[in-house]
Amino acid sequence: MSTVKLSVDGAVATLCIDRAEKRNALNQAMWQQLSDHCDALQQDIKPKLVLVTAAGEQAFCAGADIQELHQLLEDSQALAANNQLVQQAQLKLQRLPCATIAVINGLCVGGGLGIALCCDFRLALQDARFAITPSKLGLLYSIEDSRRLVNLVGEARAKQLLYTGAMLDAETALKWGLVHQITERANLAACVRDWQQQLLAVSRVSITGIKQTIAHLGGDPEFGEAKVRPLFDAAFQQADFQQAAAAFIAKQQVVFS
Question: SS3 of 2, please?
Fold first, then answer.
């Protein structure tokens, strides 16, 4: 049974981490499901927005499945393959051409925060908590995860999180720029709807081009200058701009697909 579920409603797709009884801890099968769903989103479904959510009320994701990780430690090849799968799934999520929002409904630790960092926006409950704990296990955060973190909160705060493994409350996460908005549980659905409406109202072409431009500036090797620089000029030839220009002249509201 899938524990990372994909559903689609019009232009909005939702990925739900659905293992609430384990505080949505991630195992190898779940990372593979996430990778496969991202392939489907990019190649077939092509939504305008993806929401990344989690089941239950305790945790967005408590990190790795410790029992499975203990087993993987006994087989170096299996461990290396698992680590590669994790990075592959995260990169696919990060590189989706649409807007993505992580809806953080509780504890968000380790690989769970790694997933949230791959999203464009992070909305969190006021009682959500955040931590990156490899230093408490004698391990390292990956280069890719570390780059995402530094790009968000800066080197000094990234070092504080990574060195100490300390738990961060939602208010501090908001001040640091780790999340974009915090809200009470009763208002979470309304908060998500507000962000959804704003993102669905703008141009898909613009979102994709802006996302890839920022990815280039952030050091993602997938989006080199030769690939990204032409996007600016190409946008003037796209139907979205032609439609918006015509609507502006006619003093009408443009409605993008």
Answer: coil
How many Å apart are CA 88 and CA 114, to the nearest integer? Answer: 12
- Say whether both 184 and 85 belong to one domain: yes
Contact 110, 131 (CB under 8 A): yes
| Contact between 19 and 2 (Cβ < 8 Å) | no
Domain interval for residue 223: 203-249
Task: In whole angstroms, give the CA distance from residue 157 to residue 98.
Answer: 28
In a domain, 32, yes or no: yes
- Is 9 buried (19+), middle (13-18) or exposed (0-12) by CB count in 10 A? exposed
Cα–Cα distance measured from residue 53 to residue 79, given in angstroms and rounded to the nearest whole number? 27
User: For 149-191, how does the pLDDT look when each residue is reduced to its tens digit (9 = 90+)?
Assistant: 999 999 999 999 999 999 999 999 999 999 999 999 999 999 9
Q: What is the DSSP string of 195-206?
A: HHHHHHTS-HHH
Are both 209 and 195 inside the same structural domain?
A: no
**Nearest one of 2, 144, 118 to 52, comparing CA atoms:** 118
Q: What is the DSSP letter of 96?
A: -
32, HSE (Cβ side, Cα atoms, 13 Å): 7
Tokens of 70: 């203990």
What is the spatial distance between Cα 190 and Cα 160, in angstroms, rounded to a whole number?
33
Q: Which two tokens mark 126?
A: 């006021």
